[in-house]
């Protein structure tokens, strides 16, 4: 045994050494590349990003030239540092910090030394660049926004970080990449393909021409143009209406699921995130933790939906055959559902489905919800109710093509079992869900999609921002119809009630000549914590609508934080948005009284109340 051990060890070590030599000489070409890098310089040619157009063919995002000063640390020799710093308006400390960072990345590879010079700065440096060995200028393209709206939709472009470089070898230090919005989702389409040129250098590090006559060189390919579904004029109008207010607006085309407007308020000018001030401006926006302009309320804010949720309660009641159009419930300004438990209502008398919708009777929908749940027993009943809601796209990510999103919340029996581990919960325990309070949460885009589904009488298409990609088809999931679990026949009585919301109901003051709209007002309780205590703030204003009633062209949801009640702020804004879209121009709007009031209105004093200690308005 001992005689064979030594030869075995020698054989094993020999095999390991031979294997390593084979790997280094045959498989691993890193040393060859490093050797070549001494004689060959790789120069990248950056393509223009694809242009972005709105649904009507208007150019909304183009490009502008930008110039980055690049540095290859090991080639920086014998330069006048003071002159360079003076020329670029930086300090010696800045110079050392940037150069040291570049060395950490790679002494041999180029890094950005100073990004995004304007034309004047570029011309001044170009004139003296020969004096600064190791530095050169890289031309790139930055975004040039043709509008000062829709920043939340566009997103922005920024330099890649180390994590992105490690995850995707396409990107090198200093490259730009889409961040947020359309720029992020369609990065692979918009960015194009970089061109690569190999330049040969002599022993004095001088450029002596292309390597092997350029047989390995490639030409940059410009990014593809895209058309998004946004109506930029409608988007701008919505942002104007939401000045000095907080909330979100989402408008969809029911027949396609295309997003017509996606407004978040407050917002910002997309041009702020372009150029050398981008980082500073982004920090300011990020640090605004009160207004949160970087927070897309249309996609991310989860609110109790309030009375618009009654539409779904009614549809589920009809589908579950616990009510029909003739069913009535007696309302005495509210609904008793337990000892000392009373849900207030503004209506009274014998209420049928039609009146319940246009008058927004809490009693009717509380009874309907109770019958649905009790029909199957509490646990199975809540799950049946939840499954119907999920078929509308609620309680889950909707699959739209923007990177931000939240699921909202649709509670199930498991959720209530965790809250009530000893059991004992029943339909009346969770009765607030019937009117969109309780534990239900929805985002504005989910509310808009709900109305698009009602407008379509029972089906919807996944909301999406893309309309067309140059020489490429869009994802088929955006043209796939989603059918709800509620039969189409049950939608007609609901639509009739929603139309009368404008004619004789809670939004009758918002009726617009020549346009038949269907809508629903909502007033949502609003709570927060101040100094550790749960405090009820001024109610939110919510409104959903679609129009025309027959062959609808637009469905919309408007949520205005601290907006008192549905017809006070959200209702007028939704009505004006619908009218603007259907009439085609702002000049054609007939409800100028509503427009003037909304453009001049401000809720800033409401948002200041946690600091000013003024009382909040409670509408209950």
Automatic annotation (TrEMBL):
EC number, as in UniProt: 3.4.16.4
The record's listing under Pfam families reads: PBP_dimer, Transpeptidase
Q: Does the keyword Cell wall biogenesis/degradation apply?
A: yes
Membrane topology (UniProt): Single-pass membrane protein
Which InterPro entries does this entry report, sorted A to Z? Beta-lactam/transpept, Beta-lactam/transpept-like, PBP_dimer, PBP_dimer_sf, PCN-bd_Tpept, Penicillin-binding_protein_2
| SUPFAM superfamilies listed in its UniProt record | beta-lactamase/transpeptidase-like, Penicillin binding protein dimerisation domain
Which molecular function terms from Gene Ontology are attached? serine-type D-Ala-D-Ala carboxypeptidase activity
Keyword Transferase applies: no
UniProt subcellular location: Cell membrane; Membrane
Its keywords, alphabetically, are: Carboxypeptidase, Cell inner membrane, Cell membrane, Cell shape, Cell wall biogenesis/degradation, Hydrolase, Membrane, Peptidoglycan synthesis, Protease, Transmembrane, Transmembrane helix
- Which intervals hold domain Penicillin-binding protein dimerisation? 46-208
Segments forming domain Penicillin-binding protein transpeptidase:
247-574
**PANTHER family the UniProt entry points to:** PEPTIDOGLYCAN D,D-TRANSPEPTIDASE, PEPTIDOGLYCAN D,D-TRANSPEPTIDASE MRDA
Q: What's the protein name?
A: Penicillin-binding protein 2
Which gene carries the instructions for this protein?
mrdA
